[in-house]
Design goal:
This protein is α+β, with helices and mostly antiparallel strands. It has three domains: about 70 residues, Integrase, DNA-binding domain (Double Stranded RNA Binding Domain); about 90 residues, DNA polymerase, domain 1 (Orthogonal Bundle); about 180 residues, hpI Integrase, Chain A (Orthogonal Bundle). It is about 45% helix and about 10% strand. The chain contains 16 helices and seven strands. A four-stranded antiparallel sheet has the order 1-2-3-4, with helices on one face. Strands 5-6-7 form a three-stranded antiparallel sheet. A hairpin with a 5-residue loop joins strand 2 and strand 3.
């Protein structure tokens, strides 16, 4: 430190003026006297080529001796390449976190940056219907992860900690659920990386740690005669108009159930007769040509839900700011007598894939495009979303006409169709 220049008596006798005054004590320490009479200790220093100022307290609560001690401590940190201002900011942030964590604990809520806190933040921003008590992703985390790891800081969790939780699921005999839980944890960790909580996703370290899943097969009806009975049953379904329309539209468009229930009016091009949206599963833009029958269903529903975001809004949110529950279509099929071992909402995809190929004879690549599967050309490049679009329009209209024929009892003869 430089030679000390100030004395207590000179500080006590210093009077305010109409401008800020500085009483220097040497070495960067000085007393700032405001026109109001307030006296603040300040310490000026240079760190990594930048001029900075550190507040050391208010006189007389912080005496001259105390101010010199604080300035000496700050100078020592600077000499050791520690920025005292940055250190103080970090301390304040940590104190604020501790105070907020105490408040959250009093309310019975997860603490900041715990696994549960980050997971619930991810779910609230990234998962449709997260607030629904029956949301599958939330249920899996609440049952399989939160009881053991929910309160731990996400930075402190090791791959073996997650594996221990997955082993409990495996011991219950549900290996598919264990794999799905690991996938959800991976999404939480990738969100944590993106938001700066952690440096990397640790879930890939568990690759191969679980026995392979047997693979989930969704029940589907693919025999034309049985399909006819299903379609007639759907026409007889008694429910809300959105659920009736969703059930009728499902076989016509054969998209993934999550994509159907989250369909938005803004993505429907009524002039082009197309539904365009982003498929998160395969990360591609997708186009669904809409048959005349599909258009009629949408036009019937538009006066009721067309003012909102979703074509099929949740019945629990009259304002339409949430989409239909993931259980709605399967519950409707169950009410019609088609349990999950016979037919599922996802099964409409297998139905279309099988009949379009084996009965109607459409080219497999046309069908794969329409299923939004990853389709590549001979050079390994992914096809553009508009590939074969005119042919797909024809295929979707033929498919809708075929289903009408089945439903009405017409005898449809299998043929190989060239389009």
């Amino acid at each position: 430190m430089a030679k000390e220049l100030l004395f207590d008596v000179s500080i006590r006798n210093a009077k305010p003026t109409d401008k800020d005054q500085r009483l220097n004590d040497g070495g960067g320490l000085y007393l700032l006297i405001k026109p109001t009479g307030a006296k603040w200790w300040r310490f000026d220093y240079t760190f990594l080529g930048k001029r900075k100022t550190l507040s050391l307290g208010v006189y007389p609560k912080t005496s001259l001796i105390d101010a010199r001690k604080k300035a000496k401590t700050a100078a020592s940190k600077i000499a050791n390449k520690i920025d005292p201002s940055a250190e103080r900011k970090e301390e304040k942030i940590e104190q604020a976190k501790q105070k907020e964590n105490e408040r959250l604990l009093d309310l019975g809520l997860p603490v900041l940056n715990s696994f549960e806190y980050v997971a619930r933040e991810w779910g609230g921003k990234k998962v449709n219907d997260w607030e629904d008590k029956n949301n599958r992703s939330k249920r899996m985390l609440e049952r399989n992860i939160f009881p053991w790891l929910g309160s731990k800081p996400i930075t402190d969790i090791l791959p073996k900690d997650i594996l221990d939780c997955l082993r409990r699921v495996e011991d219950r005999g549900t290996i598919e659920t264990a794999h799905r839980t690991l996938q959800i944890c991976g999404q939480v960790y990738r969100y944590a990386v993106a938001t700066g909580r952690i440096d990397r996703d640790i879930t890939p370290d568990l690759r191969g740690a679980l026995p392979p899943a047997k693979g989930e097969h969704f029940a589907a009806i693919t025999e034309p005669k049985a399909v006819a009975g299903l379609l007639r049953a759907i026409d007889s379904y008694q429910g809300s108009l959105p659920s009736v329309c969703a059930l009728k539209l499902a076989p016509l468009v054969f998209v993934r159930p999550g994509e159907l229930r989250a369909a938005e009016w803004q993505h429907i091009d009524f002039d082009a007769k197309e539904w365009r949206y982003f498929v998160s599963k395969t990360e591609v833009q997708h186009i669904v040509p809409l048959s005349a029958q599909a258009m009629a269903i949408l036009l019937e529903l538009q006066p009721l839900t067309g003012h909102g975001r979703y074509i099929f809004p949740s019945e629990r949110t009259p304002r339409g700011d949430r989409c239909m529950s993931e259980n709605t279509l399967n519950a409707a099929l169950k009410r019609l007598g088609y349990g999950k071992n016979v037919m599922t909402a996802h099964g409409f995809r297998a139905m279309a894939r099988t009949i379009l190929d084996e009965v109607l004879g459409f080219r497999p690549d046309f069908i794969e495009h329409q299923l939004a599967h990853a389709v590549r050309d001979p050079n390994g490049r992914a096809y553009n979303r508009t590939a074969h679009l005119p042919e797909r329009h024809k295929m979707m209209q033929s498919w809708a006409d075929y289903l009408d024929g089945l439903k009405n009892g017409a005898q449809v003869i299998p043929f190989k169709k060239a389009v």
